[in-house]
Amino acid sequence: MTKSNTSRSTLHQTILADLERKIVSGEWPPGHKLPFEVELARSYEVSRMTVNKVMTQLTKAGLIERRKRSGTFVAKPRGQSAILEITDVEAEVRALNLPYSYKLMSSVIRKANRHDAALLEVPGTTDILEIRALHMAHGEPFCLEERLINLGTVPEAAHAPFADGPAGAWLVQRVPWSAAEHKIFAITATADIARLLEIAARVACLLIQRRTWSTAGPVTFVRFTYPGEKHAIVASFTPAAG
Amino acid sequence: MTKSNTSRSTLHQTILADLERKIVSGEWPPGHKLPFEVELARSYEVSRMTVNKVMTQLTKAGLIERRKRSGTFVAKPRGQSAILEITDVEAEVRALNLPYSYKLMSSVIRKANRHDAALLEVPGTTDILEIRALHMAHGEPFCLEERLINLGTVPEAAHAPFADGPAGAWLVQRVPWSAAEHKIFAITATADIARLLEIAARVACLLIQRRTWSTAGPVTFVRFTYPGEKHAIVASFTPAAG
DNA sequence: GAAGAAAACATGTATATACATATTAATGCC
DNA sequence: GGCATTAATATGTATATACATGTTTTCTTC
């Protein structure tokens, strides 16, 4: 192909974003076989080298797995990333081999107040959905979730079936995030939290705050409160050399 | 150059590891100007493309900054990585614009007991160095550090001047880590910890455990205890598309 | 038909080349 | 000297090509 790229983003970025979308949206589920490099090169009208570089990056990001002679496959979700994983409470519970259940406690649509506006970085006029829910392991409280969803960015969330399962799982299917920020705190349980989590007041809890943005704007702000000293966040890293 | 790579690792990996070592070891300090791509290509006897791919990766890892026509420079340490940063207590304190000081409380060399051996993943016969120290901000306790160093991997640590400054800074200069694991807990301060950190007993604290390995084996196990609810760990991420 | 050798195949790495893009340096003009 | 224009330069992206490396398939041979 001759070179004439009229758009502003590079071919590399375009192809990477396209493949990534297909994977994280579930259009290509785990185990799905991707087209061969030469086929992708033909369909995107680029050279194999360009496709290969994109694939290499996706491999390092853990989204795909490649085997010589066999081809390329969407990776099994062994944690989309070390950090994304820490807020998939259901997977966390199941990894402990405990039965998981989910209890929606409240779900309210309202205008953002000043507090919400600050947390979500939205103007005060925005509609937001506020959710409070408990993640249960073996019938006992495992984690308290308090969530704000920006209906300006995700209007369809207003009618989502959040009574059936965690909002996080619903969101990640529909709204691919392009940035996320986590803050982790140790807090002392307030009376309110202690009652919900069925622990004594003033016990130390692990608090994880997560904010995500899509290209369309802020998506959600969520606070996970884990009771007591048993819980840990684990993150493993290797430097660039990987 | 004709192709004849006798070694087992690729040129890419070799060059990446070499440049990374020069940067993290401080041989090339922040702001240092790297040779041009063509010069590196000449000195490593590879093509510019190969060097360019390495440089692209180092740029994404945040180790270098590149400007067209100007060249390539070692990046200022705006946190070597979001996670490495969380255990550079001195930088953390200075970022808050507070005067930093360091107080070594104890430093003992001994054989690893069963507990140490489990934490560091070393046999019980290994010599270890155990350090206890306080990081102070504005003269007040900011963070308690409890550290085990594997003298089997880092024998020279036995004579390092750990009274002068944090062991972490000394180690990162000498022993480039190839893998790290973090665990984060909320704990309730024991009487011992409360006394050292000058807080009330049973206050919630944030506990960060960090283990690092070099290619030669386990390097260090360290526990940072931050008092109270003021402290947060912050991590920002963007998915592969970056 | 089973075992082993050879071919086919998909990815992995590296090269040489070309041109785009951003920024600095040099130049010419008044 | 000041200012716009042009040239030089280093990085950024993409291509076509070549060969290496593991796997899987196919083909021999017994």
TrEMBL record, chains A, B:
Source domain of life: Bacteria
One Pfam family per UniProt: GntR
Gene Ontology molecular function: DNA binding; DNA-binding transcription factor activity
Transcription recorded as keyword: yes
Keyword set, alphabetical order: DNA-binding, Transcription, Transcription regulation
DNA-binding found in the keyword field: yes
GO BP: L-histidine metabolic process; negative regulation of DNA-templated transcription
HTH gntR-type domain residues: 9-77
InterPro entries: Bact_HTH_transcr_reg, Chorismate_lyase_/UTRA_dom_sf, His_ut_repres, Tscrpt_reg_HTH_GntR, UTRA, WH-like_DNA-bd_sf, WH_DNA-bd_sf
Alphabetical list of SUPFAM superfamilies matching this protein: Chorismate lyase-like (SSF64288), Winged helix' DNA-binding domain (SSF46785)
Protein name per its UniProtKB record: Histidine utilization repressor
Organism (species): Jiella flava
